[in-house]
Amino acid sequence: MKDFSGRRQVVMLIFISVAIIFLGRLFYIQIIDESYKLSADNNVIRYVTMYPGRGVIYDRNGEVLVYNQPAYDLMVIPNQLKELDTADFCQLIDIDRKTFREKIRKAKKYSYRKPSTFQEQLSTVTYAAFQEKMYKFDGFFVNARSVRSYPQKIGANVLGYVSEVNAKKIESDAYYSMGDYIGASGVEQAYEEELRGEKGVKVYMVDVFNRIKGSFGDGRYDSLAISGNDIQMTIDGGLQAYGELLMRNKKGSVVAIEPSTGEILAMVSSPTYDPNLLVGRVRSKNYLSLQRDTLLPMFNRALMAQYPPGSVFKLIQALISLEDKVAVPGTMFTCNKALVNCHNHNFPLDMFGSIQHSCNPYYYMLYKRILYQAKSPNKFEDVVIGFNNWRNHVNSFGLGDRLGIDIANEKRGNIPTSELYDKIYGKLHWRFETIYSLGIGQGEILVIPLQMANLATIIANRGYYYTPHLVRQPDLSPGQSGSVSMEKHETTVGVQHFGLIRDAMEQVVQKGTARRAKIDSIVVCGKTGTSENPHGEDHSVFIAFAPKDNPKIAISVIVENSGFGGTWAAPIASLMIEKYLADSISRPNTEARILAADFIHIKKDSL
User: Fold this and answer.
1) Whole-model pTM?
2) Which among 126, 162, 363, 530 is least buried, having the fewest CB atoms inside 10 angstroms?
3) For 260-277, how does the pLDDT look when each residue is reduced to its tens digit (9 = 90+)?
């Protein structure tokens, strides 16, 4: 007979071991680990999200552009709701019963157990009144947070705004919950992760009247909110405000760049709006009003409006012709107005004079030379070869593609391709006479104002530019130095060719088409343009940089539907330059004329 005593002992040992494990786990759950206790006590404790303050936004001089103000959101937990006096509740927070029912339905759809925002941003008075009666309204509580405030009321399209996060973002990013706010445009959107901070949580014990009785577990389960990083922008707040003032009652834009760094000093889109309109309980109403405004105040013209550059483009044509050796500074053409319309001036002109007086026929003939360089037996093949070479040069000036600014919605503009013309006219069935308008910056060429200011930067720097940007380095205190990584871009045109162009641009302001931009104490180099508009009056265009030696500012100005570039865009640019470099205005009559101009509400003839 076999002896099973050893086997019996092994089985007993296994059972005893399992029992010890279960007992140990039970002891840990009941005595040591309080997470199950937290779950069981959810009906008597409350989790309150502690929202961090978003980072403060400063201008380049340390002046506050955006800061935070306290606000109070009314929160609801649907499964804690009990019978309440709906009329009293609605009167207290100033809503009707239909709105009350809709908000409750929305909260239940989100979650029965999790808190969600019932009414955002209560006033201080409403908050105080609700606190006194909160014991009547089971399932409701008030959560403190902050909202944005814009003390200088400038830069709305650059700074952007903050709005409630949508369901799609909540699903894709675990950080966000219903009722959270997120940067929705501009710098607020682009630097959301730096600005938003980290949320914390407070766990409270509440009584049967929904009143907080104290911290749960002596605060062991609490976590602190961590404020977002402050950001220092490259914008000069004073210059931005002045630009918005000059562009009042006008449609268009002003973009100013520091050539040596690519830092954007001002980015004005006009008409604009007070960014404080998109804060608080009136945000939704104001947002709809702004969206419906036919003047498009929320449309950032500096990045999104696309225009033919007009005569400003002649600067690039001149540089390409010098680089490709199809012309020299002394090359002359007569001003043949039978080819294309032009201003009244003496002729023939050399290249210097053609820039000073903005001669259209000169660039008609110069562009023809640029295109027909190959000199093969077939002129249709020649023009394709020349065109592709020309387009490569133009692209190196940052045209036809995004420059890579650090906020969203930058348009590319357009530099047409040979494939486009093949598609329109048939392969090898187009030539110079088909596309000659490109020579004077018209036709299919489109640029955005940022690209035009960048062109002025390139000429100021004699052939290169840094990626334009609006923010220096996140988490910098006001006054600290530092910037985002600067990427240098060089054009295909040699540095030796820029001297002539710069000298000619000086004479454009001194004795040429932009005499209204002259400043006695500052040497300004500029170029006028008139951008053709098939829908009405042409657009006034001007680019410039100053001072000529060691330039500190490059600028583009577009005033829509106002006509010749030297009449309106040029003086606006010169006032901006003087304001930035001298911090004063020596031509009060010029300033008064610009401030009085209104191209929105009255006709130009009455100015």
Assistant:
1) 0.85
2) 126
3) 999 999 999 999 999 999
